[in-house]
Amino acid sequence: MKSFDRQDGKLVLAHILFAFGALLLGGIAGMMQGMVRGGASILPDFIGYYELLTAHGVLMALIFTTYFIVGFLYSGVSHTLGGKLLPAARKLGWAGYILMSVGTIIGVAVILAGQATVLYTFYAPMKASPWFYIALALVVIGSWLSGFGMFYQYRQWRKANTGKLSPLFAYMSVVTMLLWQIATIGVAVEVVVQLIPWSFGWVDTVNVVLSRTLFWYFGHPLVYFWLLPAYLCWYVVIPKIIGGRIFSDALARLSFMLFLLFSIPVGFHHQLMEPGISSFWKFLQVVLTFMVIIPSLMTAFSMFATFELFGRSKGAKGLFGWVKVLPWKDVRFFAPFMGMLIFIPAGAGGIINASNQMNAVVHNTLWVTGHFHLTVATSVALTFFGIVYWLIPVVTGRVLTPRMNRLGIIQTLIWCVGMFIMSGSMHTVGLLGSPRRTAYTTYDDHPDAVLWMPYHVAMAVGGVILFIGVVLIISNVIGLLRAPKGETEYPIGEVSESADHTPKYLERWGLWIGIAVALILFAYTIPLIDIIRNSVNAPGVRTW
Ligand code: HAS
């Protein structure tokens, strides 16, 4: 077993540790805001509910995820594409890390100074300090550099290995970063062309519908940028951990390519209830939204097949006999598995959101908050937690001890219980009409609002349990850094012998990028022309 390159290990570890630092700060903010919403007045004078909500959203949804993903993908790119990053790829990785970190520090400082209480979607016409937008731009540019580093390594590998199929991990990393690069163009244009000049006062007003459309052009693929690294782990790593095989390399690659095609031209499903976009284009993007469900269904099928084939090879009988032979006591499997299991109701919630009539019931209610806590904060986060139990040992030359493994299982269970209570209450009270993005209020004791209160208390209880989960995962990360020295294998699964071979066209990037761009142009050109022509401009407001 070849040990992980030390220099590359430092780059990966720097990203992972930054991610968990953000998780801790974001977790503190989350617990406090949950308690406030549940009716406890615990906030000191110098910080408000919405500042905390902004810090929570930015740190958890944007910073924790991006750092973790870049670190994780770099690890696999280094391991599978030659066992070592090329100097240029490593330099780009560090340059990206530094830019993102400068951006994060400025952004968090501006939020805590009360100059950017605009929540993580920073909807105009709420206007933050220009430094908030500049900070975001730095984070995005930093992540681009990291993506370029991975593309460079992949390109050089392919030049040196003409005709060979690239490793699945690297292929999936390239798709994920490509999706990110194409998606972030939207938010970059919004921030650079609209928000920075407006927040500096160089222009008086902002086109609100345009800014939200550019945001959601980015905002929906953003959720798949979170999801794809989790899927990567399910497809590539989990088969190895359970001792099975990847069901089909071709299916795995095709599902990732379908995400590249269909995850971007669908942003309007976040704007179904907004004026200024014609119903035809909303309808079209909802159809494309239903297309993007297909690769998730393919992933579910593939995972079931991997588990079942493994179970049968161990002599499991009956329809679900294979369930019994899965390695339930191994946290590297258990945490991501719980993520998969919970993704079944989480994904079903997404399908509900995407349907226009049902969106009218749930939009802007706590149901949506419940939805994204199940998807990103459970399915994705639990998978990321499961990854650290082998990734930190791999890059630091250590081994996972049985005690750490047990603590990991306990952490996973605590997370699931906390999320069940919190997200379950959010879904239910959302259906009763309780709005999202609001601090504690009983609306002058309106009978409907009074009915919501027990659920808000339950949300606070779930939030406190989740915070215990945050503390435990942080202490587990520290424990892993101090684990006994030794060699841990980087778990990369092998493809099942019975799988069909992978067609070469899946690696014809020009073709796939071309189709993706064509779909984007088709779904967005005319609506954008309409939005610019009939622009609804507004001056900035500070609601805090
Ligand atoms: Fe969503 C809002 C639609 C998936 C995150 N979503 C959000 C927001 C976030 C978010 C953050 O159409 C709020 C944004 C904001 O602040 O306003 N979402 C969907 C759809 C899907 C979906 C159709 N969302 C996600 C994922 C997220 C995420 C993934 C993060 C990672 N979402 C919406 C819509 C809205 C929305 C509307 C706007 C709502 C509004 O009005 O504001 C689909 O991609 C879901 C497909 C998934 C499945 C599940 C497949 C199951 C699998 C597990 C297999 C299990 C196994 C284990 C193998 C069909 C793969 C089983 C083993 C056994 C033993 C049983």
Structure report:
By secondary structure, this protein is mostly helical. It has a domain at 331-492. The protein has helices at 6-37, 49-80, 87-112, 130-160, 168-200, 208-242, 249-262, 279-313, 331-354, 356-362, 366-396, 402-431, 447-481, 509-533; strands at residues 205-207, 537-539. The protein has a two-stranded antiparallel ribbon with strand order 1-2. The protein is globular. The relative contact order is 0.12. The model has no long low-confidence stretch (mean pLDDT 96). It binds heme-as (HAS). Heme-as binds next to helix 6, helix 8, helix 9 and helix 11.
Quick gist of this model?
This protein has 544 residues and is mainly α. The protein contains 14 helices and two strands, in the order αααααβαααααααααβ. 51% of the residues are buried.
Uncertain segments are none
Find the count of extended strands (DSSP E, 2+ residues): 2
What is the number of helices? 14
Q: Order of strands across the widest beta sheet? A: 1-2
Tell me the strand percentage band: under 5%
Return the string of H and E elements.
HHHHHEHHHHHHHHHE
Sheet having the most strands: 2 strands, antiparallel
The chain-level structural class is mainly alpha
Secondary structure layout:
Layout: H1 6-37, H2 49-80, H3 87-112, H4 130-160, H5 168-200, E1 205-207, H6 208-242, H7 249-262, H8 279-313, H9 331-354, H10 356-362, H11 366-396, H12 402-431, H13 447-481, H14 509-533, E2 537-539
Antiparallel strand pairs: 1-2
The protein binds heme-as.
Heme-as (HAS) binds next to helix 6, helix 8, helix 9 and helix 11.
